[in-house]
Amino acid sequence: MVAICSLLLLLSAFLMFSIQPMVAKMLLPVLGGSPSVWNTTMVFYQAALLGGYLYSHLVSTKLKLKHQMILHGTMLVLAALVLPISYGDLHPPSGSNPIPWVLLTMALSVGLPFFVLSASSPLIQSWISRAGNRDPYFLYAASNVGSFLGLLSYPVLIEPRSTVALQSTLWTVGYLCLAGLFLLVALMLRKRVVGLPVETEAQPTEKLTWRRRLRWVFLAFIPSSMFIGVTTYLTTDIAVMPLLWVIPLAIYLLSMILVFAKHRPIPHKLVVTLFPYVLALVILASTVKVSYVSSPFYLISNSMVVVFAIHLLALFVAAMLCHGEMADDRPEAGRLTEFFLWMSIGGVLGGVFNALIAPTIFVQVIEYTLILIVVGLALPARDPGWRPSQLALDLGMVVLVGGCVTGLIWLCDQSSTLSAQTYRPLLILVGCLACVMCARRPLRFAMAVCGMVLVGVYTSQSFRQTIFADRSFFGVQRVESMGKAESGETHLLLNGRVLHGMQIFTSELETVPLTYYHPEGPLKQVLAARPSGAVVGVVGLGIGSIALYSQPGEDWTYYEIDEVVERVARDPRLFTCLAKAKAPQKVVIGDARLRLGDEPDAKFDVLVMDAFSSDSVPAHLMTVEAFQLYRKKLKPDGLLAVHITNRYLDLQPLVAAISAKLGLKMLVRQETGASVDTIERGRELATWCVVGLPSYDWSRFSESAGWVPGKQRTGIVAWTDQYSTLLPLINWDKAEQ
Question: Is the entire prediction scored with pTM above 0.85?
Fold first, then answer.
């Protein structure tokens, strides 16, 4: 019986967590590659999970077992009526906040199946407890094993081997198998508890206080907020790879598997002991900035792998701490569904805070930093004595630790004989150790961590000044200025760590395209091939650098998904590329593929594909169907230029495969040589492809000028709207740096 119930819960959870990335892949590509896409889907799933837990709590406490089984069986059948999940043409709103559209669309499509699946776990556990098992909580671990497997199997096994349509069909088959398994479990359980009235089926004897319930909510809120915060931080500020979105959620689920297991493999006392040291390590890694390879702090400051490992370790230990505290405080089996209900409420609040509230009240991604402070309050108090003087010291620790470390750094900064990369890391390390010493009192520890966060704010100040920052669904757009010097003031547009445009305000350089668009690069050669009075379309605006290539009498149109980017590009206090352009520059807001579909055929002489969300390319703009649309909107002798510069993905074989599939010719020019100093020269090494009909006069793109035919690679096939996978395109050498 227990084995069959475990299998049912495992399959249910597997389906729940494999459908999350599947639906995101089907539904949300038109919204770009921003981490907000994933975060918004997480809010929806957490809300649906809350609805399922509320339903299971009400059903298990108000209905007899027979009626519970009939009702849930009926819900399973109703949910099957919307399967298989599929979508036609999607038309999201053109505004900067598509979150309501996302939530509504998901509710109408996957809402009911996910709701029914989410209710299965607490219901089955409740039924098991009524069949004689006094502690069915271990089944929650089995459920999370299914969640863990479903989440990780999608990008590694399912996505690379199947189309979206096949994935939906297989998921439907799995759902039908689950419905049959549910019928079997219901019949077996019914025989064991037949005839029991509702009063004797579940009469909890344990009384719950509101303080205890709110503590469950708080403990569930922290890891929920933290895994979304880690996701946003790592995939925006460290390495913009959407494939990494699933890793923090997998760690979150793993912690639940471990703490609700019958025999915990990691003792909770060990987690409590380690947590202050791990959190101090995160503060150290986030605050210390060194460039000397010989420094013992170099790796935690510069190695992407080490930085990732530190933050993911902190997430794991924090989740183990919070979930472990909840598991130790779980009520009797009769209160099981209520326990999961409050846990789900905390999870939803964490998701809502990070995905919906934080982007509207913070212009920077600081919600992760805030949760690093709050998580200290989850530590169990090991020095519980309370006196007014102790409370004052607890609250004052933010000034005592933060103020002392900041003051010492400032004093050392005044000395011309000391190296900042020597004394700053050591002083920050001392401050982090001071935090650890406060760990016996949670409030004191949290305030000490807050003090060190403020130290990080002070030490992050540099010769660059942030003069503009705004945040939308598509990310944080930040404009930084370097002080005026002989070379002129320089403005940079950044999304996370990725540079999206640069302008140097001198009489010689203000009208010169820089970074990936510089006059010595591939794009200049492509645009030089356009006819007089050309019609040019550009997918992706940035600061409008490409507009500086325009000539009088030409027609230029940009397609940009983020309204904030247009505001930045048109503000003369920030950038003047559009204002200095020699031809009018029209900007169309919305998804480029949808907006291009509204344009007349054979309109453009040149179409430039330069769309990036941080360092990733929206998948739906790199498919066979997308290239067919581009070709349709180009004149017969028109050219498509595709920007494929990328730190972690090798996109050239993909463009070659798509071009070959459509019978088009493709050439690529990849700039090589020593690393270019962007700040000094305003130039980045770029890689561009040019695609057109074989009959085009290709003589102007000679091999001597750096253009070579695109090469296909074994194992990489052309993406379609039904199939795409990032795994074969990852440049693992760069990803490990």
Answer: no
